């Protein structure tokens, strides 16, 4: 059995960082295993290419949730990256840390060392920000952050927010999260700058790093005295065993990490016995605490030019492709940039809803495939409550690693979440009613809420919502092994030499997009791994 110091399972946003940091001093030999493909497609480099990857079977696991009772039994589409770079290689590139309270809540749940003041240095370590070295940012990290100009129609959204009394925010990743403005995105010279490109690609030249793609890990291997000692994996259909002299690290994401733990005998004993899996460690919290941001969409027809008018015709699409190919500029070098974090209680309150304003209108085909542009000038507004209270689960559906697990986010399953959704829908209605947005809007392109009463707004949310693809929390850290999977060092309770490093470790979801917090976790975890002596 070939042996390494560390085995990292999953080359996603976290795993790519671990592979780089654990090998950079040359002392450790690391194996990185990725179930998906290599990242060779041009669509993976192109910022707007995420639309092409939305249903791409080569680069996307294309999961669906279980039927959601509060969403008319909809099985919500849940894309996950299946490629070097993981979901960070196919997402919309919005770079948001979250707010101070998110991480202070992590620490308060039995995780010393994870408060906002504790994690800020790790956020700074990973980014090269246009503001350079400040109290909030660094100019020397590996992930390049940019902030580009937005389409002129975004000014109408900014004016609508101001008309309701909300303040502009020039930096969502600075002193405070609240306000409206332009999102940071992780791009470099017109290309996506994921952890796969910024961390892993340079590290591939090192002799002490071995990477296997199309390598599906079937289970973690254990020794009664030493704990986790390796993995059993199918590499392009051939079964192999690899040993870990120090630790096995699971970085397969909020769906695959709990699935792999359960398949390896670490999970709720009743679930494992039901699927005839020998129980190594009764860990009832594995797969529980799943969280996601539910996103509600408003599609509007504009009475002036939007991005649809720049790429509607084949000749425009060809011109945009040439502009990108030769100069890394133009429409294809952009992504969602305008939005904000507002308080549904009114100006001055704590931000509790995230807004996206997209100067583009499109349709999501019912039978899969890439989003299709609408044949008219349009724009969209999406909102997501920042801190949902519902808790779902990820559970294996069989003992076969090839069968997708049951993903149940339990959307809108609490009264608190239903009220948050109602408040968010009411806020968007108020924005659309301002003079600024009314002047640029020709019509709503889907049924709008029938009224401003709670029942009408909730019905609209149930009919026009889906995931915004921020699954996390399914292997949360915390001090109580009955309620959490990991300790504050990201070690699995009751099992030695096994850690988890990905979005599943979040005790609670952060207020916004989760890719930046996931990469921060990996930077901090790499330091924990290198300091730890088994």
Explain what you see.
- The protein has helices spanning 13-23, 100-108, 116-126, 154-163, 195-203, 253-263, 269-274, 308-311, 314-327, 415-433, 435-438, 454-463, 515-531; strands spanning 2-9, 30-33, 63-68, 74-78, 127-128, 143-144, 179-182, 187-188, 191-192, 209-212, 215-223, 227-235, 238-250, 266-267, 281-282, 288-290, 294-302, 338-342, 353-358, 362-363, 372-373, 378-385, 392-395, 406-408, 441-444, 465-467, 498-500.
- With 534 residues, it is of the alpha+beta class.
- The strands form 8 sheets. Strands 1, 2, 10, 11, 12, 13 and 27 form a 7-stranded mixed sheet that branches.
- Helix 1 (13-23) packs parallel to helix 13 (515-531), helix 3 packs across helix 13 (515-531) and helix 10 crosses helix 12 (454-463).
Q: Averaged pLDDT, please?
A: 94
Number of helices: 13
Spatial separation of the terminal alpha carbons: 21 Å
Oligomer: single chain
Shape descriptor reads globular
Fraction of residues in helix: 25-40%
Largest sheet: 7 strands, mixed
Q: How would the blueprint of this fold be written?
A:
Blueprint: E1 2-9, H1 13-23, E2 30-33, E3 63-68, E4 74-78, H2 100-108, H3 116-126, E5 127-128, E6 143-144, H4 154-163, E7 179-182, E8 187-188, E9 191-192, H5 195-203, E10 209-212, E11 215-223, E12 227-235, E13 238-250, H6 253-263, E14 266-267, H7 269-274, E15 281-282, E16 288-290, E17 294-302, H8 308-311, H9 314-327, E18 338-342, E19 353-358, E20 362-363, E21 372-373, E22 378-385, E23 392-395, E24 406-408, H10 415-433, H11 435-438, E25 441-444, H12 454-463, E26 465-467, E27 498-500, H13 515-531
Parallel strand pairs: 1-2, 1-13, 2-10, 5-6, 13-27, 14-15
Antiparallel strand pairs: 3-4, 7-18, 8-9, 11-12, 12-13, 16-23, 17-22, 17-25, 17-26, 18-19, 19-22, 20-21, 23-24
């Amino acid at each position: 059995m070939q042996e390494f110091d560390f085995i990292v399972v999953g080359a996603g946003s976290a795993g790519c960082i671990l592979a780089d940091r654990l090998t950079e001093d040359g002392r450790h030999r690391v194996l990185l295993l990725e179930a998906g493909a290599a990242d060779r497609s041009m669509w993976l480099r192109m910022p707007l290419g995420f639309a092409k990857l939305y249903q791409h079977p080569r680069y996307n696991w294309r999961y669906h949730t279980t039927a959601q009772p509060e969403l008319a039994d909809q099985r919500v589409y849940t894309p996950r990256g299946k490629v070097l770079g993981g979901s960070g290689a196919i997402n919309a590139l919005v770079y948001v840390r979250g707010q101070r309270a998110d991480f202070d809540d992590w620490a308060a749940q039995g995780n010393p060392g994870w408060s906002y003041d504790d994690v800020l240095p790790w956020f700074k370590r990973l980014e090269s920000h246009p503001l350079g070295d400040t109290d909030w940012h660094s100019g020397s990290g590996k992930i390049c952050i940019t902030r580009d100009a937005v389409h002129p129609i975004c000014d109408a959204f900014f004016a609508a927010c101001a008309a309701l009394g909300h303040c502009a925010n020039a930096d969502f990743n600075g002193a405070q999260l609240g306000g409206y403005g332009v999102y940071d995105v992780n791009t470099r010279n017109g290309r996506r700058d994921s952890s796969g490109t910024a961390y892993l690609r340079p590290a591939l030249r090192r002799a002490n790093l071995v990477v296997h793609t199309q390598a599906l890990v079937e289970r973690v291997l254990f020794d009664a005295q030493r704990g986790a000692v390796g993995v059993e994996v199918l590499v392009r259909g051939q079964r192999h065993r690899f040993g870990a002299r120090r630790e096995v690290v699971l970085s397969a994401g909020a769906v695959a990490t709990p699935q792999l733990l359960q398949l390896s005998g670490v999970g709720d004993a009743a679930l494992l016995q039901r699927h005839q899996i020998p129980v190594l460690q009764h860990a009832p919290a594995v797969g529980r605490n799943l969280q996601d941001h539910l996103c509600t969409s408003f599609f509007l027809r504009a009475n002036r030019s939007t991005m649809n008018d720049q790429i509607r015709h084949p000749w425009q699409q060809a011109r945009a492709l040439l502009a990108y190919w030769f100069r890394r500029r133009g429409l294809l070098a952009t992504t969602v940039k305008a939005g904000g974090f507002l308080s549904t209680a009114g100006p001055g309150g704590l931000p509790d809803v995230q807004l996206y304003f997209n100067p583009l209108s499109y349709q999501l085909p019912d039978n899969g495939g890439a989003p299709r542009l609408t044949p008219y000038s349009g724009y969209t507004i999406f909102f997501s409550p920042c801190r949902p209270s519902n808790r779902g689960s990820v559970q294996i559906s069989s003992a076969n690693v090839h069968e997708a697990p049951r993903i149940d986010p339990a959307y809108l399953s609490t009264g608190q979440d239903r009220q948050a959704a109602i408040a968010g829908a009411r806020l968007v209605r108020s924005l659309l009613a301002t003079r600024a947005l009314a002047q640029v809007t020709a019509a709503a392109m889907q049924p709008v809420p029938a009224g401003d009463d709670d029942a009408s707004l909730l019905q609209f949310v149930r009919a026009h919502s889906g995931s915004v693809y921020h699954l996390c929390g399914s292997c949360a850290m915390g001090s109580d092994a009955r309620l959490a999977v990991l300790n504050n060092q990201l070690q699995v309770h009751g099992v030695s030499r096994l850690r988890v490093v990905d979005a599943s470790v979040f005790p609670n979801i952060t207020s916004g997009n989760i890719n930046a917090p996931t990469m921060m976790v990996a930077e901090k975890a790499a330091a924990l791994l290198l300091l730890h002596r088994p």
